[in-house]
Amino acid sequence: MDIRQLKAFVAIAESGTFTAGAVRVHVTQAAISMQIRQLENETGAQLFVRAPRRVILTEAGEKLLERAYVILREHDAALEEMAALTGAHKGRLRIGSASAMVSADPLPQILRELKKTHEAVETSVSSGTSEALVQQVLAGELDIAFVSLPVEARGIQTEQLSEDYLVAIASPHHKLANQKVVSAYALAGEKLILGERGGNTRRLIDQFFAQAGVTPKVVMELSRLSAIKRMVEEDMGVGIVPLQSVDEEVKQGRLVRWWIEAAQINWQLGVARLVGGYESPIHLTFLGLCREHFKQPVSTPPRNKTKPKKKAAGG
Q: The domain spanning residue 172 has which CATH number?
């Protein structure tokens, strides 16, 4: 088997059809079919079952896919090492981001700075929950991902970049808009608009309500922070989001912000990458730029200013 056959095999497995797989690897459908036949002849196993609208991996195909990811990752690492030794600036960087804030700013600025050092770098950016992005890093589909911490996955190393605090937000038209602090019990009685399950931010929120012994009333679960903020602006419910993400809206009077009583919910942003994975000069430059941008000190926790009494915490 050769690298072209494995790339064709992975393309079909991920896209679900021979036609889509051929497009991904820039060959004809006849050519990719021949590559898979050669691969099946060499392995002595059928790799796909042809269904009406898609192909399905056989058990042998699933096993080979696991190996193919490892082989192709090592192949890319070898090429990058050789490029580094010859002083080349070419290479790719596949980035994932679970944070809409990072994708909007500062990631564009960081990538612009990266281009100054590595002019020919090819970059791609995809979004998803922290959990999904970590799985893509493990599968070799991403080189690095911005995720909520902590990450509990073997084979993944993380580095914290910044820390923020989760606060409640509401429309200025909300009946409690003038208050500064809200309790877990009051929040549980509101129509809550939260992020989708699978991310650490949602896990922190669910854990907070569980520890308070209350069951929240969640009316919307949205994948994008911008969508949560817009729904709250329209007074469709109350949200819980990172403090820094709503600075502008609060200043403009489009949202009001409440500290959450008897709670210190820390939201940590970090980068996740493979343990022991090869890190090219491009990867190292990118990490350095990330550290440089996020090195500013964390602001004083809000509870130092509005620390509730212990009696309130007990409810």
A: 3.40.190.10
